[in-house]
Write a sequence for this structure.
């Protein structure tokens, strides 16, 4: 099956710093990628939809100036958490669409962000 | 509002039992439905994908059914094993491309 990678897998940072998370589709091209956030013992909540070559679409309540998304190529999307605070600590997961509305979404392994 | 619920929230069974996990969705105009497994602190592993035109999918000991009219899907796990212990997530795809996830069922299979 298709493989999606995320880097880093775990990051610990100080409050006020910015953190960049990469999501890559390794063996297929993904015009659309999705970013989710998962708090402990909760399900995944969609943050934004990332489209190659255009601006991301953010879900209601997600600050676009805080969570910067760049989808510069068909295999890479990045999420930058700017001026991170402890409440941003969470598990961030990306997924990539295999193509067409009938296709599967393939998920990355996730990035655990801890803001001190 | 499109919502997905899962019952039960948690389940503990002895090894070898057959079990059923339930997923319900409020809007039946779905494109497809996908079942995932998530181990603690890990990402998602896709188990089964059912298109809106299909009624069931099978993979090994897993069988997923879909009843769009009633807004339900079930995941059947045969002869459960301790290695099946994980959280099982149901996700429904509507218009657009993203999924709406259920809260998950935490499964523990005791040896």
């Amino acid at each position: 099956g298709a493989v999606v990678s995320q880097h880093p897998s775990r990051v610990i940072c100080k409050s006020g710093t910015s953190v960049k998370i990469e999501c890559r589709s390794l063996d297929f091209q993904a015009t659309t990628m999705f970013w989710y956030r998962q708090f402990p013992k909760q399900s995944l909540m969609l943050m934004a939809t990332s489209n190659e070559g255009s601006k991301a679409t953010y879900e209601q309540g997600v600050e676009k100036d805080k969570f910067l998304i760049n989808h510069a190529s068909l295999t890479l999307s990045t999420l930058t958490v700017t001026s991170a605070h402890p409440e941003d600590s969470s598990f961030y997961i990306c997924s990539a669409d295999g193509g067409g509305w009938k296709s599967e979404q393939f998920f990355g392994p996730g990035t655990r962000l801890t803001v001190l | 509002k499109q919502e997905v619920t899962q019952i039960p929230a948690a389940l503990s069974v002895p090894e070898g039992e057959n079990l059923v996990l339930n997923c319900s969705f409020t809007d039946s105009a779905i494109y497809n439905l996908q079942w995932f497994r998530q181990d603690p602190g890990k990402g998602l592993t896709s188990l089964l994908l059912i298109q809106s035109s299909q009624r069931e999918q099978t993979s090994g000991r897993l069988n997923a059914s879909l009843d769009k009219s009633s807004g339900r899907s079930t995941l059947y796990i045969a002869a459960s094993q301790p290695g099946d212990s994980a959280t099982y997530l149901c996700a429904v795809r509507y218009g657009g491309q993203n999924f709406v996830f259920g809260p998950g069922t935490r499964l523990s299979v005791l040896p």
In short: The mean pLDDT of chain B is 93.
